[in-house]
């Protein structure tokens, strides 16, 4: 069976459903996206209980927002890096600093909006360490790789096909970016670039960001 990749729009961020022998999900989008999630399941004829694992690329609210509801609907386990599992378990709403003029402007705008965001807390079942986390037991040929920089607990999901799901290691859509590139927000840009160099050395073929359409690794290679 070929791998199916479904891009699902969950507010300002996208989540992905990946189907092979098993089915997993990457990220959970913004808060209050339960209805939207169910609509996509119907559209793609996916049974909620087929999803056995949810990997959250990092702890920002636009990626964790609907995690509790999606976990309840699917019964899936949630995996997240140990550095940020508290953010979901305690409803913390960290914001990354802007690294460009536009990023700093957006970070200020988001900090004003932050009091109105509510991320329902839920337990992280599988804390991910800095080591690779294989996905074979979930019926997926691939692994989770620790890729810090945007935040200290950022991870990426790499399939054997060369498709990689990078969360916010890159951004490719307005208002965050106008064209695909490194993000306007990062806790540590040098570390982010180091994470990208390691990924490029792994022969990645197609980058799937959480904000925007997929794009070629050559774009990142040119920027580093
Ligand atoms: Zn983020
Ligand atoms: Zn994001």
Radius of gyration: 16 Å
The number of distinct structural domains comes to 1
Instruction: Kindly state the number of beta strands.
Output: 11
**Low-pLDDT stretches:** none
Widest sheet: strand order? 1-2-3-4-5-6
What structural category arises from helix and sheet content?
A: alpha/beta
| CATH H level, superfamily name | Ribonuclease Z/Hydroxyacylglutathione hydrolase-like
Bound molecules: zinc ion
Order of helices and strands: EEEHEHHEHHEEEEEHEH
CATH topology: Metallo-beta-lactamase, Chain A
Task: Calculate the mean pLDDT score and round it.
Answer: 94
Q: Tell me the CATH architecture.
A: 4-Layer Sandwich
Distance linking N and C termini: 36 Å
**Number of helix segments?**
7
How would you describe what is shown here?
This protein is of the alpha/beta class and 224 residues long. The protein has a single domain, classed as 4-Layer Sandwich (Metallo-beta-lactamase, Chain A), CATH 3.60.15. It has 7 helices and 11 strands. A 6-stranded mixed β-sheet has the order 1-2-3-4-5-6. The radius of gyration is 16 Å and the shape is globular. It starts with a strand and ends with a helix. The mean pLDDT is 94. The site of one zinc ion has 7 residues, from helix 2.
